[in-house]
Amino acid sequence: AVLRWNEKNMLAWATILLGFELKTGFLAGIPLEYLPALLLSVLGAVAMGEWMARRKVGQGGAAQARLLGAGNAICGNSAIAAVQPLIGASPAQIAVSVTLINALGLLGTLFLGPGAALMGLGPTEQAVLMGSLLQSVGHVSAAASGLGDGPALLAMSLKMGRILLLIPLLLWLQSLSAARLKTNSTAESTDSNLRSLIREIPFYVWGFVLCALATNLLPLPDVFLDVIKSLTQWMLWIALAAIGMNIRVQTVLSQGRDAFVPALGMFVIQILLVLGWLVFLKFLS
């Protein structure tokens, strides 16, 4: 019973507390010419996930593809935790997505910077790659730590910008979920459809938005925010451990082998999109 409660509820509450980490002040540190790199990365991953879901690419199902898209696009484990109730993902699909996204993040942390340096990209451009592509805050922090204070701050600012886009992603997935469930939508007015959609938005989405507003509008002490951040991480770990206790390893291995190539392909497309924008900027200059 404890495992089942953790699996269903702990992820939701961790998602709510994640809102306290959403500092919009970081966005002021992003030069306008680098914002398209952020948007291309996020939209590329989400679009690829939706395309794979509708084309039934791989045997993991539509939920698996959308989980991979959200994890690659936004913030790894946290994004997977946030979107999984909206798309009806199974514990095995969650485990596969978390494993693959973290593996890709580790590879990106180790090789994205050296690869960019070999291509002749400077510290600022490397920071744009890391902030726009790496899946978790930890990945970005580790990869950008040797670039200097300015580029490291830029990388983290881009990462915060991606986390901000979790809100529209959740609302979009909720609208897809609501549209699939409606059988008489043609008979309803636009206003009633909108009210129905708002009522069906999960409580943790509202909680996430409220916490994000609080951390940006109220003078919350740093000690409080540090405690919340640690608590959020522990809640995520406990929830994922509970999910792992309720699945079979063979199921994860079977589905993981099938999902690896789509996940890698999605990450490669994101890299190409961001690199393409940086090359375009070089051409303009």
Structural class: mainly alpha
**Mean pLDDT over all positions:** 83
Strand fraction equals under 5%
Question: What's the total helix number?
Answer: 13
Task: Set down the secondary structure blueprint.
Layout: H1 2-18, H2 35-55, H3 61-75, H4 77-87, H5 91-118, H6 123-133, H7 137-144, H8 149-164, H9 166-181, H10 190-200, H11 203-217, H12 222-245, H13 249-284
Task: Briefly summarize what is shown.
This protein has 285 residues and is an all-alpha fold. 80% of the residues lie in helices and 0% in strands.
Describe this structure in words.
The structure is a single chain. This protein is an all-alpha fold and 285 residues long. It contains 13 helices and no strands.
What are its keywords?
single chain; 285 residues; mainly alpha; globular
